[in-house]
Backbone:
């Protein structure tokens, strides 16, 4: 199954392999193409060239050879190919040589010029009877520079000539000229034997429309809008080939036109659409399919182009034109008097309603069922476009869309069809005053909970959220409360969707959800393992399990632990910020630490945590930030044991904890009890070095009257004694054999914090000085058991001597260790009383002078 912005389609493996070789340029219409399959059925689908994650070894070798080919060898190859092209018939050797030439040209960075004679031999191949030769010659010529003065020599009216002309347009004038040429072909009513060239015009126009829509003038837009109306509404309703009626008197005169059929085999009673089938198709039926495939793109691009109300479609045929008009498509004759733009909108509206009616029919083939789903997606998207342009159509459209939702909502196999319906409700639900709760219940509750392992739905749902994030925040309260469910996509396939969540996560952070969201992000690896176990219970093969018996699977099935897993699998917020038995859950999931899916999920968490904290400081108040600080301290010891995961999370916590304290210094006083409790636990200095160091640094920096007037001498003394006890314990006791030693950074941070606190309460200076002098004496006696490196010990002693020297003069110590804010954040470049601004301006002018 492949997807685009326009529709979806399923390709068989054999079809996929053929698509991988060459993308059919003549079928390409904005990545939405129409092509005939077996027995003359028309399919609306997608042809893609799959992009592998990496080239195979053989492919890399071929590309390398093509890039390193020597000029002498290349000239010999040109000569050999020229001889092959002079032959009357072209065999496999010619095809292989052309493919090799294309590889050589495309593998190099710079565009090359072919020998003039060889290039002139390639040009006639554009009109060759062999389509393979047409495609190969086009591909080769596109990679080369045209000969001087021969930029516009390709006069054959086929897709390859037009696409080549388009690729060689080097100016807006040339592009406008090509547009005029293409539209002139549409404007002139052509004879039957020339009409086939029309099928090649729309793909090229659509490419121009994608990259340079301003090249089309208002008159050209009007002309093409008229043509689209004709092709969409007035295509033939009989099959393309005349079919014999049978019997004894069989001859040319007895052949009768056969009407087109519906997907369920019945005779069609209305106008032709892409869902009509037959043994053959006429040219205008093909143009009908091409027109539908580019219709939404056309409407989105030119819906704001004004149409002259004085223009009337005098050349239009009758509204009925021989077809049996159904209740869906019947309109008043006044629609013929509308300007072209409005008339196209009306016909697009009728066409889509007809498609929705056709999708109610039971298809005879499974592939046709997939086709119906693709057409439903496109039809609803087009209806959304026309209703956006003309709000009066909302009231005519909603009954049909609402009925479609009611029919499909109970079948999750139509999930990708229901997303465009959700988009329609989001855009027009308020105008129609309809209840949308059932739609959002489906999108935010059922889809992520039951289809989290569907990569295509994940892509389309997250894309829907990204495109509508502002509207969802304002108008859909279920959105922000559904993040436990949405995170299942991230937990299941983190690397594939992490970019989407980088965009979406800020919109999920609110004052009400921030704490629970932080817990949910930290528990993402647990959620990933739980989703694997959930699928394992339904006998779905899971690669991570490797066929072994899983203790965690038994725990998942056990009623005793069921509540832990059900909390992780919750669909919305409101069940509490976290659970009490997190350590128990982590023990149950110990064996998941080496599951690839869990490891990949864990790698995305630090990135998302940075985004979370960057957002929460903007939306949260001091009370919320204080709560988050406590969560960081608590969760620093409650993380799933994964390789490097704990270290990465501690690094994120330490960074943002210090940032919170700098933004709101009062937080240190508010949470002094919890911070001192954390800093006073000696074990934290060993197991949580990163977080512990930054907590100690925050205490030393921010416990000051200048940061918060509530900071008393008693509080400073209490903090000093707590840190002093820890420092004395780690530097006076020898660790057990094999046990970790305290990091030098922890010791220096404790020493600096004690010196800073003592500089604010001079009564504490003698205690600090005594410790520092003892440290110096101990270091002179040789190696110490708490420091394994002589270099580290020397650095610690040096820091101690510096602090000791400062504390000998308390006044200087206070100004150095606790400087005023205006000295730590100088604004010399803005102070007009200094000469520095003049110097900066002079240097700037010199660097900008050429």
Residues:
């Amino acid at each position: 199954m492949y997807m685009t912005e326009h529709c979806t389609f399923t390709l068989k493996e054999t079809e996929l392999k053929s698509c991988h070789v060459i993308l059919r340029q003549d079928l390409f219409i904005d990545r939405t193409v129409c092509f005939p399959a077996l027995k003359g059925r028309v399919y609306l689908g997608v042809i893609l060239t799959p992009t592998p994650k990496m080239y195979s070894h053989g492919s890399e070798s071929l590309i390398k050879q093509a890039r390193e080919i020597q000029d002498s060898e290349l000239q010999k190859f040109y000569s050999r190919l020229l001889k092959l092209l002079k032959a009357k018939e072209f065999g496999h050797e010619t095809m292989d040589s052309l493919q090799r030439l294309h590889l050589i040209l495309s593998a190099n960075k710079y565009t090359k010029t072919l020998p003039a004679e060889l290039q002139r031999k390639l040009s006639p191949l554009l009109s060759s009877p062999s389509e393979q030769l047409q495609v190969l010659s086009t591909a080769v010529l596109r990679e080369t520079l045209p000969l001087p003065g021969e930029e516009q020599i390709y006069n054959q009216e086929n897709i390859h000539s037009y696409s080549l002309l388009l690729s060689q347009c080097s100016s807006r004038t040339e592009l406008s000229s090509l547009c005029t040429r293409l539209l002139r072909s549409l404007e002139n009513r052509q004879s039957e034997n020339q009409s086939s060239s029309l099928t090649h015009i729309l793909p090229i126009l659509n490419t121009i429309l994608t990259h340079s829509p301003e090249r089309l003038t208002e008159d050209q837009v009007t002309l093409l809008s008229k043509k689209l109306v004709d092709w969409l509404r007035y295509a033939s309703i009989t099959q393309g080939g005349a079919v014999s009626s049978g019997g004894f008197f069989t001859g040319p005169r007895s052949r009768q036109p056969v009407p087109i059929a519906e997907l369920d085999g019945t005779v069609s009673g209305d106008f032709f659409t892409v869902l009509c089938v037959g043994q053959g198709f006429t040219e205008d039926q093909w143009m009908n399919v091409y027109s539908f495939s580019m219709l939404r793109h056309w409407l989105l691009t030119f819906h704001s182009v004004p149409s002259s109300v004085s223009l009337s479609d005098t050349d239009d045929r009758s509204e009925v034109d021989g077809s049996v008009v159904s209740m869906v498509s019947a309109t008043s004759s006044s629609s013929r008097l509308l300007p072209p733009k409005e008339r196209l909108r009306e016909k697009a509206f009728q066409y889509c309603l007809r498609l929705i009616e056709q999708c109610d029919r039971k298809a005879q083939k499974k592939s046709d069922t997939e086709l119906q789903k693709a057409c439903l997606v496109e039809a609803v998207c087009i209806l959304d476009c026309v209703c956006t342009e003309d709000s009066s159509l909302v009231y005519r459209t909603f009954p049909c869309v609402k009925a479609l939702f009611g029919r499909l909502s109970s079948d999750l196999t139509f999930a990708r069809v229901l997303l465009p319906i959700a988009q329609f409700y989001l855009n027009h639900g308020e105008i129609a005053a309809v209840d949308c709760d059932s739609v959002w219940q489906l999108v935010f509750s059922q889809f992520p909970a039951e289809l989290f392992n569907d990569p295509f739905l994940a892509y389309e749902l997250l894309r829907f959220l990204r495109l509508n994030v502002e509207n969802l925040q304002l108008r859909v309260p279920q959105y922000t409360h559904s993040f436990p469910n949405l995170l299942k996509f991230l937990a299941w396939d983190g690397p594939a969707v992490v970019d989407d969540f980088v965009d979406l996560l800020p919109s999920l952070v609110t004052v009400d959800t921030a704490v629970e969201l932080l817990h949910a992000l930290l528990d993402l690896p647990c959620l990933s393992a739980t989703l694997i176990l959930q699928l394992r219970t339904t006998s779905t093969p899971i690669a991570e399990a490797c066929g072994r018996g899983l203790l965690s699977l038994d725990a998942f099935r056990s009623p005793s632990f069921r509540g832990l897993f059900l909390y992780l699998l919750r669909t919305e917020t409101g069940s509490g910020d976290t659970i009490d038995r997190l350590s128990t859950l982590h023990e149950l999931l110990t064996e998941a630490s080496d599951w690839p899916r869990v490891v990949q999920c864990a790698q995305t968490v630090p990135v998302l945590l940075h985004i979370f904290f960057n957002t929460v400081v903007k939306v949260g108040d001091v009370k919320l930030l204080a709560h988050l600080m406590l969560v960081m301290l608590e969760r620093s010891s409650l993380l799933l044991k994964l390789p490097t995961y704990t270290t990465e999370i501690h690094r994120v916590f330490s960074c943002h904890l210090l940032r919170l304290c700098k933004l709101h210094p009062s937080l240190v006083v508010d949470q002094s009890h919890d911070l001192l409790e954390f800093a006073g636990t000696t074990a934290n200095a060993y197991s949580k070095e990163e977080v512990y160091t930054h907590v100690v640094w925050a205490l030393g920096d921010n416990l000051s009257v200048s940061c918060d007037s509530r900071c008393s001498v008693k509080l400073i003394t209490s903090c000093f004694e707590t840190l002093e006890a820890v420092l004395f314990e780690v530097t006076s006791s020898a660790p057990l054999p094999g046990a970790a030693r305290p990091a030098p950074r922890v010791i220096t941070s404790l020493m600096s914090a004690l010196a800073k606190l003592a500089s604010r309460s001079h009564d504490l200076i003698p205690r600090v000085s005594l410790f520092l002098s003892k440290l110096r004496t101990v270091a002179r006696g040789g190696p110490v058991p708490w420091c394994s490196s002589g270099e580290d010990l020397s650095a610690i002693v040096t820091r101690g001597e510096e602090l000791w020297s400062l504390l000998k003069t308390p006044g200087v110590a206070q100004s150095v260790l606790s400087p005023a804010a205006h000295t730590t954040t100088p604004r010399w470049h803005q102070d007009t009383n200094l000469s520095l601004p003049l110097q900066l301006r002079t240097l700037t002018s010199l660097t900008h002078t050429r």
